[in-house]
Design brief:
With 374 residues, the protein is of the alpha/beta class. The protein has 16 helices and 10 strands. The chain has an 8-stranded mixed sheet with strand order 3-2-1-4-7-5-8-10, sandwiched between helices. A two-stranded parallel ribbon has the order 6-9. α1 (15-30) packs across α4 (103-114) and α5 packs parallel to α9.
């Protein structure tokens, strides 16, 4: 049995269609052997009612309010528990604000698990060059560099999770769910946990991700703190894994990527620069980097790697406040936007790949600093 899990909070405008498309996917590819579950965070806009009004063609659907800290991770934990209670073979997680979801997504995300070829499936999207800035500038290069698996969307939001993976998640201490894993830290935690524990990972080509995109300078600060704090905490937990990982292995991509064009996304570059210039002096960071950000509101790729690695070590030592990293993140995004403003998404992707090479080249230095300061 497959559980399609849809975490939500105030998504009444989009969740009905997500549920109906999921139901069609279950019927078309898995003979309807599944259930669609909505785990809601106390929506006030009729999200749960919209979900329950979906025409699922007779497929079972359930909606409930999860318990715990308000956040996406708490919603997904409740779905893990539902899956274990019903002995599900796989969970497919879909974001509740998706507008591009197709029935075949269910097959791409669940199929490799049901066939026994994978334990965990991450999405492989075509995204606008300015969508997913936390992914592009920290989660993608850090996951690839640290753990040696080139997973393009480690926090993509839409996943296939096999029984071995969700049982692993549920075996972790309850205290995990009082951290940022209960919020937006959940995706990087899920992806890193399966990789670090040796489970099999593949990527599913899903085409464009069209959802409620956000301008990084105006909407993403809380998410940044939650995601990056979790990423750094996982470095502490799995230091014996990443310090002994060499090189980067390609992760198989299931299916062909449809020829689609992502929605346009406008970024307020002046706003990013002005917010970047508010950066504080940071004791453990090279003052020249801070001075340049204060002056120009931008930061080059190599200096950005220095920032991320310095914060990771300082976080381990209890000296770093991830919130202080946000202006530097704005500076990196501003620099990337300026560099790629006349590039296609494909050309901008090559800039992201070169940045990954910068992260990888400096990994030896990160390990030395991590060991010398421990």
């Amino acid at each position: 049995m497959i559980v399609v899990g849809i975490p939500s909070y105030n998504n009444a405008d989009t969740i009905k269609r997500v549920a109906e498309v999921a139901a069609e996917g279950l019927r078309r590819y898995f003979k309807g052997n599944g259930v669609i579950v909505n785990s809601d965070g106390g929506s006030k806009d009729g999200t749960r009612e919209a979900f329950m009004s979906a025409d699922t063609g007779g497929l079972k659907k359930e909606s409930f309010e999860y318990e715990g800290i308000p956040g996406k991770g708490s919603a997904m934990r409740a779905i893990f528990e539902y899956a274990r209670e019903h002995n599900a073979d796989a969970i497919v997680f879909l974001d509740s604000d998706l507008r591009s979801v197709k029935p075949w997504w269910i097959d791409r995300l669940a199929g490799p698990i049901i066939s026994g070829d994978s334990d965990y499936v991450t999405p492989y999207y075509t995204r606008h060059k300015y969508d997913g800035t936390i992914t592009n500038h920290i989660c993608y290069p850090m996951t690839s560099t640290l753990y040696g698996k080139k997973v393009r969307q480690p926090i993509g939001g839409d996943f296939g999770v096999g029984k071995k993976a969700y049982e692993l998640y549920l075996s972790k201490p309850d205290s995990i769910w009082s951290t940022n894993v209960a919020r937006f830290g959940i995706d990087i935690w899920m992806t890193t946990t399966v990789i670090a524990n040796g489970l099999r990972v593949v990527q599913a080509a899903l085409g464009a991700k069209i959802h409620d995109v956000k301008d990084p300078g105006k909407h993403l600060s809380p998410m940044f703190i939650q995601v990056v704090s979790t990423l750094f905490s996982l470095m502490i937990e799995y230091e014996n894994v990443w310090k002994n990982s060499e090189g980067i292995d390609d992760v198989p991509i299931i299916g062909e990527s449809p020829d689609v064009k992502p929605e346009e996304l406008k970024v307020d570059l002046d706003n990013l620069r002005e917010k970047a210039k508010l950066v504080k002096d940071i004791e453990f960071l090279d003052g020249k980097i801070i001075d340049l950000v204060k002056k120009y509101g931008e930061i080059d790729s190599n200096s950005w790697v220095e920032v991320v690695y310095s914060f990771a070590v300082a976080f381990r030592d209890g000296k770093a406040n991830v919130e202080d990293m946000i202006p530097l993140y704005f500076a990196r995004v501003a620099s990337f936007v300026k560099e790629t403003e006349n590039m296609s998404t494909e050309e901008a992707e090559r800039v992201i790949e070169r940045q990954l090479e910068d992260f990888m080249r400096r990994k030896v230095d990160l390990i030395k600093r991590w060991e010398n300061d421990s």
